[in-house]
Amino acid sequence: MTTLTRDEMDHAALEAAVAQAEKSLSEGGIPIGAALMNAEGVIVSLGHNLRVQTDDPTAHAEMMCIRNAGRRRDWHTLTLASTLSPCAMCTGAAILHRIPRVVIGENQTYMGREDWLKAEGCEVVVIHDIRCTSMMESFITENQELWNEDIGVPPESGA
User: Fold this and answer.
1) Neighbour count for residue 134 (Cβ, 10 Å)
2) SS3 (DSSP) at 63
3) 88-110: b or e for each residue (b if 16 or more CB lie within 10 Å)?
4) Which DSSP category does 61 fall into?
5) Partner of 129 for a Cys bridge, out of 31, 100, 105, 116, CB 3.0 to 4.6 A?
6) Could you give the CA distance from residue 53 to residue 27 in angstroms, rounded to a whole number?
7) Pair type for strands 33-37 and 43-48
8) Which residues belong to the active site?
């Protein structure tokens, strides 16, 4: 049995998250994916953004991944990987469950609450994966109104 390095596990978790983002995009949703990995390098849960598909404003990728993980006692040993820097809601869920590591595919198109994660002692690893950045840049360019809705930007007032 080959033991993976921390870096290899981070990239494997991100690969699973990217596949989830692509799944969301193929369903007409926002291309953000997440994965939870245990200390042995096993993916224990997956999730993708389902906000559009389910008409649920809380169905962000990280929230779905945490929800899909079910009741657990090992949150403090898991790594959460997300294709995009987590928003305040998703950051709060990671903090609530004391997830100690968050691996982020990219934070150029959107900077979430990495500051809050770090302030709570969470290790934050940003990989700067070009696939994640390209996927989000394309989506935002083609779906600006939907993206603004997802991140809570109010519609133009027309004033």
Assistant:
1) 12
2) helix
3) eebbbbbbebebbbbbbbbbebb
4) H
5) 105
6) 7
7) antiparallel
8) 62
